[in-house]
């Protein structure tokens, strides 16, 4: 197709119009449908408390569900109206058949359920960027909120004492995640020797991931296990002291040098079950996993075969290699007994993270002028990979934090999309930049003009805001976490939202609050109670759409999910208060009373 096909209408409008009119139901199917498969869910007292994320009917009183799908939306009176008697009348027997039809309708009338007065219904929530198994991994030894190295040591000791199987086996690695040196008094990286201060930990193999996963801190025993280390690592860094000795912190690609044992299938199953239970309790019905290795994909595929996937999963395959690896991962569309597993995209990394000075910048860091960050792949190698994945029909999703990383990737996408020798339907390809965190003014416009999807995480803004301006300075910060600008520039009018859990919390309402308020959960920011750069805040409707329909668009599923319109899957969430209207502080107190996937309650009760 030619380049003129790049421009499309809003996915909200196009998806609702394509699904608004469900095929007419025949009398035969109406008579044969089982009553147990049909119900109507309504707001109380005639309110329109069901938010559909549909332009034509943004709020309705009721939705009607049959089997897995939404049948109709509207008022209770509209949904209770009997099926019109419009079939051919055999032999003029209306006087016999019409009463029979009315009697059958009365018998088959679906059960009507009402939500509480203060409650609302929203489409099933999606996380457009997360790490499913890593979240379960993190649950074993959580280091979030630690205010010092000593607190990290104490938490690690507590973990060891509460896990006798690890305590009594000196060959077992101790692993955890969540430390953040920016929260400590000295705000500098820890060292391996810190983990030998306590006699209980001394001599143990310990590997503790930073909160963003882009740095790992190891113990002296783990360091000795690695032997001689290279002086340089392409796309990574081994932190060294003044004498050139490794201190025990490894960044980005250098992390692969640490000989941490691979996860067993049993461990992956434990991590998976932990995360799925947590996600369902927070109203998530769909998750985009942003870094799925071939081993992880094989695990997810096995779960799908056994019908053990409780929600829609969209996996981004990843192999850390500059050599084409598209043949190492399977293509799966709606795979498994329930059809809930899809693998049609890949994930590449351009740079590291801002918190560890690994984000690739065009100019030096304001607080560390000796570095501009890390490019994990050369622009040439990355370009070759992206073009091969595009040629082979993969959606390409690329991690970009710094302005240099975003510029490199947009140059590559632009070369493909606007290239003289290729005709690209960008709506069919849907390339994504994961994070789009720091961009130049020109690139904030270019990403939208090209039709590239920016997938962002609002809680990153409120977590990073305490040090981001120190890292970037007063000018570059204006192009950082620029969510309203990105949405306004988007060719498709979309801005899919995620959390990057376990980097941030799993609860999507934390992201909802952060996107709208630009405040920490305690109501503070570097700019006070008004919020941090609130000109880039999203409104509530934009935010809800970002975590429903926009996320669906980013995973090619907007015709099946993301809004509550006839014909789409009946994925929805009941919340105990109206997050679209209550004071923002109340949003954080909202609880999920029911999570429904394909018409069935998978958490809570209706």
UniProtKB/TrEMBL annotation:
InterPro entries per record: Amidohydro_3 (IPR013108), Metal-dep_hydrolase_composite (IPR011059), Metal_Hydrolase (IPR032466), YtcJ-like (IPR033932)
Pfam families (UniProt xref): Amidohydro_3
Superkingdom assignment: Eukaryota
Domain Amidohydrolase: from-to ranges: 120-603
GO molecular function, one term: hydrolase activity, acting on carbon-nitrogen (but not peptide) bonds
UniProt signal peptide: none
Region (Disordered): 1-26
SUPFAM superfamilies from the UniProt entry: Composite domain of metallo-dependent hydrolases (SSF51338), Metallo-dependent hydrolases (SSF51556)
PANTHER family: IMIDAZOLONEPROPIONASE, PROTEIN LONG AFTER FAR-RED 3
Designated name of the protein: Amidohydrolase 3 domain-containing protein
Source organism (scientific name): Tetrapyrgos nigripes
């Amino acid at each position: 197709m030619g380049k003129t096909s790049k421009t499309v209408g809003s996915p909200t409008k196009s998806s609702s119009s394509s699904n608004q009119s469900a095929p007419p139901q025949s009398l035969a199917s109406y008579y044969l449908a089982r009553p147990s498969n049909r119900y109507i869910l309504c707001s109380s007292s005639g309110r329109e408390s069901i938010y559909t994320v549909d332009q034509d009917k943004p709020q309705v009183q009721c939705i009607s569900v049959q089997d897995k799908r939404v049948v109709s939306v509207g008022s209770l009176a509209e949904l209770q109206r009997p099926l019109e008697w419009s079939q051919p009348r055999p032999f003029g027997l209306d006087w016999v058949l019409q009463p029979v039809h009315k009697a059958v309708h009365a018998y088959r009338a679906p059960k009507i359920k009402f939500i509480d007065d203060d409650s609302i219904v929203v489409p099933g929530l999606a996380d457009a960027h997360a790490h499913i198994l890593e979240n379960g991994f993190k649950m074993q030894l959580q280091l979030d909120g630690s205010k010092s190295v000593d607190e990290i040591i104490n938490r690690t000791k507590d973990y060891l004492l509460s896990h006798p199987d690890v305590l009594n086996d000196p060959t077992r690695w101790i692993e955890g995640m969540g430390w953040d040196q920016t929260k400590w008094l000295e705000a500098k990286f820890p060292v391996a020797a810190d983990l030998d201060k306590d006699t209980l930990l001394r001599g143990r193999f310990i590997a503790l991931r930073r909160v963003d996963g882009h740095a790992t801190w190891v113990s002296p025993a783990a360091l000795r296990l690695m032997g001689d280390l290279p002086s340089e690592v392409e796309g990574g860094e081994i932190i060294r002291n003044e004498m050139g000795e490794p201190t025990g912190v490894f960044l980005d690609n250098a992390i692969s040098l640490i000989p941490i044992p691979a996860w067993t299938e049993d461990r992956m199953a434990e991590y998976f079950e932990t995360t799925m239970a947590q996600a369902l309790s927070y109203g998530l019905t769909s998750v985009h996993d942003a870094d799925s290795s071939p081993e992880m994909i094989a695990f997810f595929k096995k779960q799908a075969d056994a019908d053990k996937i409780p929600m829609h999963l969209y996996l981004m395959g990843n192999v850390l290699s500059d050599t084409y690896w598209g043949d190492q991962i399977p293509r799966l569309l709606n795979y498994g007994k329930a059809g809930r597993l899809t693998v049609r995209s890949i994930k590449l990394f351009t740079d590291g993270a801002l918190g560890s000075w690994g984000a690739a910048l065009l100019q030096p860091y304001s607080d560390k002028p000796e570095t501009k960050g890390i490019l994990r792949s050369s622009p040439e190698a990355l370009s070759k990979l992206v073009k091969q994945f595009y040629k082979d029909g993969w959606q390409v999703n690329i991690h970009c934090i710094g302005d240099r990383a975003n510029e490199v990737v947009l140059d590559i996408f632009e070369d493909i999309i606007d290239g003289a020798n290729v005709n690209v339907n960008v709506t069919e390809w849907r390339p994504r930049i994961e994070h789009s965190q720091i961009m130049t003014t020109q690139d904030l416009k270019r990403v939208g003009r090209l039709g590239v999807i920016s997938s962002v995480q609002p809680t990153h803004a409120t977590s990073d805001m305490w040090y981001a301006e120190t890292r970037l300075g007063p000018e570059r910060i204006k192009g950082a976490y620029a969510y309203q600008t990105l949405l306004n520039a988007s060719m498709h009018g979309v801005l899919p939202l995620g959390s990057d859990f376990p980097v941030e919390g799993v609860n999507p309402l934390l992201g909802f609050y952060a996107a709208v308020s630009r405040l920490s959960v305690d109501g503070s920011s570097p700019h006070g109670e008004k919020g941090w750069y609130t000109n880039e805040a999203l409104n509530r409707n934009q935010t809800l759409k970002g975590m429903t329909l926009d996320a669906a668009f980013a995973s090619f599923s907007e015709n099946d999910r993301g809004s509550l319109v006839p014909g789409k899957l009946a994925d929805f969430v009941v919340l105990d208060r109206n997050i679209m209207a209550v004071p923002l502080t109340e949003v954080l107190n909202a609880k999920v009373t029911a999570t429904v996937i394909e018409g069935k309650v998978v958490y809570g009760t209706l």
